[in-house]
Amino acid sequence: GLTLENVLDYFAESPFWDSQSNNEVLKMQTKFNFLPDHKPLDITKMTGIEFYVVQADPPFFFIVQKRKRISEYEARPLASYYIIRGIVYQAPDLYTIIGSRIYTSLYHLHNVFNNIREHVNFHPATGYTWKSDKDDSHAILGNSRSIFFFTIF
């Protein structure tokens, strides 16, 4: 199963992995280094792209963040990925989420206006009127509050 120790190795097999990342550079530099006085290199001392496990609930859930390391104390998030039961997903960015929500809202608003347009008539003499389901006569929009009130109750 996945653990905190092997999740980045597992993530490295996904199409989201950047082979030029600091993680990959460190892995290649220390792969065949068997010296006894070898100290593990600190990835926070390097600048560039890195992957970091932000949150974990082993063995089923992990959040991996791709970040650009600016300095030892500053890293800017670029993308987020999550691993659920061994499957890697890319999390949508905020722009995509907001755009999708706005598009969905506008779609439904467009449908509402199309439905309302089917029930309204305009004549220069009478103005806007609601089409009535009972007969062909029209109710003037000025009285629409009372019509709406009676249809609800």
Model description:
- This protein is an alpha+beta fold and 153 residues long.
- It has 2 domains: 7-90, Mediator complex, subunit Med6 (Nuclear Transport Factor 2, Chain: A, Roll), CATH 3.10.450.580; 94-152, no CATH class.
- Helices cover 31% and strands 29% of the residues.
- The protein has helices at 7-11, 22-30, 94-118, 144-152; strands at 48-57, 61-69, 75-84, 87-90, 120-123, 127-131, 138-140.
- Strand 2 (61-69) and strand 3 (75-84) form a beta hairpin.
- The protein is elongated, with a radius of gyration of 30 Å.
- The two termini are 60 Å apart.
Q: How do the strands and helices of this protein lay out in sequence?
A:
Elements: H1 7-11, H2 22-30, E1 48-57, E2 61-69, E3 75-84, E4 87-90, H3 94-118, E5 120-123, E6 127-131, E7 138-140, H4 144-152
Antiparallel strand pairs: 1-2, 2-3, 3-4, 5-6, 6-7
Distance between the termini: 60 Å
Shape: elongated
Mean pLDDT: 85
Strand order, largest beta sheet = 1-2-3-4
Q: Identify the CATH class of the largest domain.
A: Alpha Beta
User: CATH architecture of the largest domain, please?
Assistant: Roll
| Strand residue percentage | 25-35%
Question: What is the number of helical segments per DSSP (H or I, 4+ residues)?
Answer: 4
Low confidence ranges? 143-153
Structural class: alpha+beta
What Rg is obtained from the alpha carbons, in whole angstroms? 30 Å
The helical percent reads 25-40%
**CATH superfamily assignment of the largest domain?**
Mediator complex, subunit Med6
CATH topology of the largest domain: Nuclear Transport Factor 2, Chain: A
E-strand count: 7
Q: Describe the biggest sheet?
A: 4 strands, antiparallel
The topology string of helices and strands comes to: HHEEEEHEEEH
Total discrete domains: 2
Main location: nucleus
Keywords: Activator, Nucleus, Transcription, Transcription regulation
Subcellular location: Nucleus
InterPro entries: Mediator_Med6 (IPR007018), Mediator_Med6_sf (IPR038566)
